[in-house]
Amino acid sequence: MSTTLDEPVVVVKPRTAQDLLDELGGIDPARVRIIPLPGTATVADLLDPANKCCELIDGTLVEKAMGVRESLLAAYLIELIGPFIRANKLGIRTGSDGTWEILSGLVRLPDFAFVSWDRLPGRRVPDEPVPDVVPDLAVEVLSRKNTRAEMDRKRGEYFRAGVRVVWEIDPRRRTLRVYEAADRYTDLTEADTLAGDPVLPGFRFPLSDLFAELDQHG
C-alpha cells in the first residue's frame, strides 16, 4: 500500500521550553539535555562520554529513545545486511552509535546506516568521529518514546540531506515502512519480503525472519 502524508508543519524559533519540545516533535522533556544549554551545544559536546547516545539538533543535545527490543532488531539487521554489503564491496554500515553530520550542525544516529563508497571521501572509512557524510540508507527502529512528529521531522531532514531511502521499523505492529521520499511510503508486514533496491540491489529478506527475533526463548 502506498500513501502520501500531510505536509510538514512549519515551526517558529523556540522562545520557551514548551516551544523547544514542540519543535523537537513533542518529545519527553527528560530526553533533552540542559547542559550545555539548549541551543548552544556543539559537536564537541556531543563527543563528551557523558552525552553518549545523543543527537545534536539545532544546538540541543537530545537522547535517542532506545530499548532492548529496538536494539535487538537493529543488531540483527547488521547480521543480515553486513555480509551482503561486504561481499559485494558496496560500502560500510554502522549501528545505533554511528554519528553522521547529515546537515551543518545536525547530527543523527540512525539505528542502522549504509553508506556507499561513492559517498565517502577518498572511498575510505572516515577518520573523524562525526563525519560530514550522508548515508544512502537510514533505518529507524521505533521506540514507545518516539512521537510521530519527531519521526516526521527526522525523516524530512534525512531526505533534505540526501538520504535515498529510509526504513522505519515498528516492533509492536511488526511492520516496516519503506520511504522513497519524506511523503511517499510503502507498508510491509511479516508476510512480505523486503527488497534492498535501489540502495542495496539484489538484497532480499523475509520480514518474518526479522520479527522472529522478538519471539526467541530458552
What does this structure look like?
The chain has 218 residues and is an alpha+beta fold. The chain has a domain at 65-215: Alpha-Beta Complex (tt1808, chain A). The chain contains five helices and 13 strands. The protein has helices at residues 17-23, 43-46, 68-87, 148-161, 207-211, and strands spanning 2-4, 54-57, 60-63, 91-94, 100-103, 106-108, 112-116, 137-141, 165-170, 175-181, 184-189, 193-195, 204-206. The strands form four sheets. The chain has a seven-stranded mixed beta sheet. The chain has a two-stranded antiparallel ribbon with strand order 2-3. A two-stranded antiparallel sheet has the order 5-6. The N and C termini lie far apart (37 Å). The model has no long low-confidence stretch (mean pLDDT 94).
Task: Furnish the topology, listing elements before pairings.
Layout: E1 2-4, H1 17-23, H2 43-46, E2 54-57, E3 60-63, H3 68-87, E4 91-94, E5 100-103, E6 106-108, E7 112-116, E8 137-141, H4 148-161, E9 165-170, E10 175-181, E11 184-189, E12 193-195, E13 204-206, H5 207-211
Parallel strand pairs: 8-9
Antiparallel strand pairs: 1-11, 2-3, 4-7, 5-6, 7-8, 9-10, 10-11, 12-13
Give the key terms:
two-stranded antiparallel ribbon; 218 residues; single chain; alpha+beta; tt1808, chain A; globular; 23% helix; 7-stranded mixed sheet; 13 strands
